[in-house]
Design brief:
The structure holds 3 protein chains of 3 kinds.
Chain A lengths: L1 H7 L12 E6 L6 E5 H19 L10 H20 L8 H17 L12 H23 L17 H45 L3 H6 L1 H38 L2
Antiparallel strand pairs in A: 1-2
Chain B lengths: L1 H31 L9 H11 L5 H20 L7 H59 L3 H70 L1 H21 L1
Chain C lengths: L1 H12 L2 H22 L4 H31 L1
Helix pairs in contact in C: 1-3, 2-3
The chains are: A mainly alpha, B mainly alpha, C mainly alpha.
């Protein structure tokens, strides 16, 4: 049995998500440890990429856009359309926020697809950190806009009086669960996709070094790897879009109270 | 560096594969003896592969390939670059990315150029429209280029009119004044005349009274009589 | 013993993916249905479908994640 496990799973597919320290500073004086880990490095890279993309799309402040800025413009336009359809006119104030979230999550997803790299969005600290922060912000916004009427969110319209306590409990729990589910969805998708790729490539590698006949057969799983890579690229876009869309719908709850 | 080397060597290896495939298909077509499609001869294919390599002469190209192959071999043998399952992911990623770039580039470029041209034409049209509007305005204004002189003349005319009106008014006032004075004087004259008439009538009445009284005096009556006799004598003498 | 239990547990956890499969199938079946009924709102329907697909797939991935947690922790 153990030999079977050893031959099938030599490498843990979750190994790629390990956080490694590159250097750290700290000590008795500072009391805390400041370290640059690979997730930190990749988050910095993503930030630089987001800023660089946006800077390039300025196109020297020319009126006629370049091809590069058209891409950003169409991304911007699609996010704007999404906000208009989910929140409505009031939500356009949150366009920069949602657009930044979209770009950041999208690039964090995409940078993980580059071979030998690390996926920042495959860590719960990324997704759930984002979603908890968003939920806190949305709740503050709701109380600021509607004061105590915001609690009306927890009582759906037309509830019989007897059901109100139960429904309020359920709604409160589901409201708080958003903080977890929003980030968990993104992170689970990323982990799932990368683990799938890793397991498939491990199997295929076993076949590649197994012998000439297996090498020939390994073309089939290799085609699957290519297909999964394409799927992963699509999922990176979809998940970034869904993350932004759900954030927008939570904002909608806070602004328009259903 | 290792990555770049690998991609380079992969790109070197891929055309070779393609060449093999094409030779295989050539062989199959020879068997089938139905060469309808355009065949690429192995020589030209090889030439195109050689042309795609960097360098000028055949020697430098060979040098590049040898150096790349040597470097790749060195890196792999010293285990600086290790072939493992991640290499497969790298290959798959390169294939997917290359496929996306190859397939999406042309439509994207066309779409982007169309969009850019649309914006550019809109801007240029706006510029032309603006220019036309400005020229129109210039023409309109140009029609009124002697408006200053006309205005000046009009102003002078109106000034003159005002002056004349003022004079006319003055004259009218003077006339009215004169008429007033004249009427006053006339009434004065009438009054004076009536006063004089009254005095004269008084005087005449007095004189008539006086003469009547004188005539009643006999001394005067005799004197008149003498005087008239004298006159009659004088007339008679003359005759 | 523990290893085999882990593997069995992970395998059992993947049963949850059946539900996700049904869900994704339902989502796209609904897309096909509605597009056939009213092709003019295809773009809007597609964006909803993508949202539904992502939500459903995430549920499936929770099961997959349970399997990984069982296998490797």
């Amino acid at each position: 049995m153990t030999t079977f496990i050893n031959t099938v799973f030599i490498n843990n597919p979750l190994e790629q998500f390990e956080i490694k320290e590159f250097f750290y500073m700290g000590g008795p004086l500072l009391g805390a440890k400041f370290s640059l880990t690979n997730i930190g490095l990749y988050l910095i890279i993503v930030t630089i990429l987001v800023l660089g993309m946006s800077y390039l799309s300025l196109n020297n402040n020319k009126v006629v856009p370049s091809r590069w800025s058209i891409v950003q413009e169409s991304l911007f336009g699609s996010i704007l359309n999404m906000i208009k359809s989910t929140i409505g006119g009031k939500g356009e104030a949150y366009l920069p926020f949602l657009y930044t979230i979209f770009l950041y999550v999208l690039l964090s997803n995409l940078i993980g697809l580059v071979p030998y790299s690390f996926t920042p969005s495959s860590h719960f600290v990324f997704g759930i950190g984002f979603s908890v922060a968003i939920l806190i912000g949305v709740t503050i916004l709701g109380f600021q806009t509607h004061a105590l009427k915001f609690f009306g969110l927890f009582v759906p319209a037309g509830t019989p009086l007897g059901l109100v306590p139960v429904l309020v409990m359920i709604e409160t729990i589901s409201y708080l669960a958003r903080a977890l589910s929003l980030g968990l969805r993104l992170t689970a998708n990323m982990i799932g996709g990368h683990v799938l790729l890793k397991i498939f490539s491990t199997f295929t590698w076993k076949a590649v070094i197994g012998g000439p006949i297996l090498l020939l057969i390994s073309i089939i799983p290799f085609a699957f790897i290519i297909a999964f890579t394409g799927l992963e690229i699509a999922i990176a876009f979809i998940q970034a879009y869904v993350f932004t869309m759900l954030t927008a719908s939570y904002l909608n709850d806070a602004i328009n109270l259903h | 560096m290792a990555l770049r080397l690998l991609t380079k060597s992969a790109s070197v290896a891929r055309p070779a594969l393609a060449a093999q495939r094409s030779t295989a298909s050539v062989a199959i077509r020879h068997m089938a003896t139905s060469a309808e499609e355009k065949q690429v001869s192995p020589e030209s294919k090889a030439q195109s592969i050689i042309d795609s390599l960097p360098g000028n002469s055949l020697i430098t190209k060979t040098g590049y390939v040898t150096a790349l192959a040597g470097a790749a071999t060195y890196l792999i043998s010293k285990e600086i670059y290790v072939f493992n399952e991640e290499s497969l992911v790298l290959l798959a990623f390169a294939a997917t990315f290359g496929g996306i770039v190859k397939n999406a580039r042309e439509p994207f470029n066309a779409w982007a150029d169309e969009h850019i041209n649309k914006i550019r034409t809109i801007l240029q049209k706006a510029r032309v429209d603006h220019k036309a509007a400005v020229e129109d305005r210039i023409d309109q204004v140009g029609q009124m280029k002697d408006v200053v002189d006309v205005t000046k003349a009009l102003y002078a005319l109106s000034k003159e009119t005002a002056k004349l009106e003022a004079e006319a008014f003055e004259l009218k006032q003077k006339t009215a004044m004169t008429a007033e004075v004249k009427s006053v004087l006339d009434s004065w004259v009438r009054y004076e005349t009536s006063v004089r008439e009254r005095e004269q009538s008084k005087l005449a009445a007095y004189m008539i009274e006086k003469i009547k009284a004188d005539l009643a005096d006999p001394k005067l009556q005799s004197q008149i009589l003498v005087e008239s006799i004298n006159q009659v004598e004088k007339i008679a003498n003359k005759a | 013993m523990l290893q085999s239990a882990k593997i069995i547990g992970a395998g059992l956890a993947t049963i949850g993916l059946a539900g996700a499969g049904v869900g994704i199938g339902t989502v796209f079946a609904a897309l096909v249905n509605s597009t056939a009924r009213n092709p003019s709102i295809k773009a809007q329907l597609f964006s909803y479908t993508i949202l539904g697909f992502a939500l459903t797939e995430a549920i499936g991935l929770f099961a997959l994640m349970m399997a990984f947690l069982l296998l490797y922790s």
